[in-house]
Design goal:
- By secondary structure, this protein is an alpha/beta fold.
- It has 14 helices and twelve strands.
- It is about 35% helix and about 15% strand.
- Strands 5, 6, 7, 8, 9, 10, 11 and 12 form an eight-stranded mixed beta sheet that branches. A four-stranded antiparallel beta sheet has the order 2-3-1-4, sandwiched between helices.
- The longest helix has 15 residues, at about 55-65.
- The two termini are about 35 Å apart.
Length: about 375
């Protein structure tokens, strides 16, 4: 969901021992404007990714119609990667000594309220730190026997996990789990009785395994099941086996597709885009078969495309009996509205976070369904 060619803050080391010592040397005296200008200058001095004009033309035509003025401001953000913000998801299983204090001193704040009015979890709330500027601390290298302290992400990608609202001991399926950020986030909110992480793509499956190894302690790995299956078949293989299912579906990822390496590849992807809604519907139906009656399925994508978002949910609701649409909890939306820009749909079929200047999180679409019987 995000590019690896990003603006990095000077002074950090990816070494687990040196990184915390380096925190206090980072941006000790830069103001908000100075920080932004410095990062912009650093990024402009590096080779920049090229926008695929074919994809941009397609997006302009589609999203101008579907989103109106909101597309124009989102477009400005997507075309300027050095404006993108990044969240720092803390790993509760690692040694976080001084980490929160150091992030706070650098101007980071916690995205999420640390008291949840409806939570009965015995674990600490998930902690994700964000900065108002587009700063990005380096990723940490993998070291055998040492758990990484944080995971960098687009903070809007936590919305599906928060909407899933996993409780202690529940059996959870992450149907399309790679690279593993949302599986990791689930484990930050509660300790499930089972977390089944599935990924059909072989390369991404290996990536998923590496992520889990880097963040999850050996004492909890017996709670994990990692499979390499076609997600469309899991519903029939394990009907009603899960309390909660997350379907973070393959989609036309707006951020990455916009920077398709060449025009030919962009044209191929746009042709494939028309086939995605069918796959997404099949994955969502499989998830509904896999969840128990009364259980919840969250469907999400990182695109603004109506055909892959609202239309998929509408089609499944029309064809799959015994399913109802659930609104995302209002207290959750209210707690995030200062940081995320939510689009407004009529009728509502979920929530869409659209990147805007100063709030560059997203795109992220989330819809919540419950299986009645």
């Amino acid at each position: 969901m995000f590019s690896t060619k990003l603006c990095c803050i000077k002074g950090f080391s990816s070494s687990p021992l040196l990184s915390l010592k380096s925190f206090k040397r980072v941006l000790p005296s830069l103001s908000h404007g100075q920080c932004t200008n410095t990062l912009e200058a650093q990024c402009k001095s590096k080779p920049q990714k090229q926008v695929c004009k074919t994809v941009l033309k397609h997006f302009d035509a589609q999203y101008s119609e579907e989103l109106g003025e909101q597309w124009h401001s989102a477009r400005d953000v997507l075309l300027i990667p050095f404006s993108w913000q990044y969240g720092v998801l803390l790993n509760r299983f690692s040694d976080l000594t001084n980490l929160k204090q150091c992030l706070t001193e650098l101007g980071y704040t916690n995205l999420l309220p640390q008291t949840h009015p409806e939570s009965h979890s015995q674990t600490a709330p998930m902690q994700c730190f964000i900065h108002r500027d587009p700063v990005r601390i380096p990723t940490q290298s993998h070291h055998p026997g040492w758990l990484k302290q944080y995971y960098l992400l687009n903070a809007a990608s936590l919305l599906p996990v928060l909407s899933l609202n996993v409780k202690e001991g529940e059996h959870v399926l992450d149907l399309c789990a790679a690279p593993g950020g949302k599986s990791l986030a689930i484990l930050q909110t509660a300790t499930p009785g089972l977390l089944h992480c599935n990924e059909v793509d072989e390369h991404r499956h290996d990536w998923l395994l590496k992520t889990l190894e880097s963040y999850v302690p050996p004492t909890l790995r017996h709670l994990l099941s990692v499979t390499h299956l076609d997600g469309r078949s899991i519903g029939s293989m394990r009907p009603g086996a899960y309390d909660k299912v997350l379907v973070d579906a393959p989609c036309s990822n707006d951020r990455s597709w916009l920077y398709t390496p060449d025009t030919h590849q962009g044209e191929m992807w746009l042709k494939e885009r028309t086939q995605l809604p069918l796959l997404q519907k099949e994955l969502l139906c499989s998830a509904l078969a896999a969840v128990r009656p009364g259980g919840v399925v969250v469907y999400s994508t990182c695109t603004m495309s109506r055909a892959e978002n609202q239309s998929v949910v509408e089609a499944v609701l029309a064809s799959y009996q015994g399913v109802e649409l659930l609104e995302l909890e209002q207290h959750l939306i209210d707690s995030l509205s200062d940081h995320f820009c939510f689009a407004h749909f009529h009728p509502s079929m979920g929530q869409l976070v659209i990147p805007q200047k100063g709030k560059t999180w997203g795109p992220m679409y989330v819809s919540r369904l419950r299986r009645i019987y």
